[in-house]
Specification:
The protein is 82% helix and 0% strand. It contains four helices and no strands.
Length: 78
Amino acid sequence: MKRAFFATALVVSLAFINTAAQAEGCTKGAVVGGVAGHVAGGHGVAGAAAGCAIGHHEAKKKDKAASAAAASSQPAGK
């Protein structure tokens, strides 16, 4: 049962990976969401899909905040 669950979570996470830029956060989110969905009621695939989307969203927010912080730390004349 565990083998089938993890195989399904892996397939779902790989299905959402189109490019390296889009993959950031997706794999970790898919694994965490898949496990949580499975434990919560046998909805591992739905949890993996939601986890991928949330993980990708959080990674984009982190990157945006980092780039904003880097831009604000540069001198105004350069």
